[in-house]
Design a protein that fits this description.
The protein has helices spanning 5-49, 58-96, 100-108. It is an all-alpha fold.
């Protein structure tokens, strides 16, 4: 049974809206990971300057390195999600022939 074209287009527009939301979340996660790395490195330098930790110590370096790796993984997976969502949006737009104006008007409703 063939689907009603307007229902199909509405479903496509809903999916595009959902994917655009995922893209926003991915950008925020990536930016937060970058900010986390900056705060981590600056915090280590600040603590070392105040004499709280040994800047050349293996414990401080190891903790910093592990945290930086974790944040790099979060940022990397977020950028992959961003790219995948963008490709999926482009694919849906091609298959359903959806214009920018239709996407904007669908979001307003």
């Amino acid at each position: 049974m063939a689907q009603n074209p307007s229902k199909r287009k509405t479903r496509c527009l809903d999916e595009i809206t959902r994917l655009k939301g995922r893209r926003r979340v991915a950008v925020i996660k990536c930016a937060a990971a970058l900010a986390g790395v900056i705060v981590l490195v600056a915090g280590k330098q600040l603590l070392a300057a105040q004499g709280v930790i040994d800047p050349n110590g293996i414990a401080a370096g190891g903790v910093t390195m592990l945290c930086a790796f974790g944040l790099a993984i979060v940022g990397g997976t977020s950028s992959i999600d961003f790219t995948k969502s963008g490709k999926k949006i482009a694919e849906i737009r091609r298959s359903c022939i959806v214009t920018d104006e239709e996407i904007r008007s669908h979001r307003i409703r």
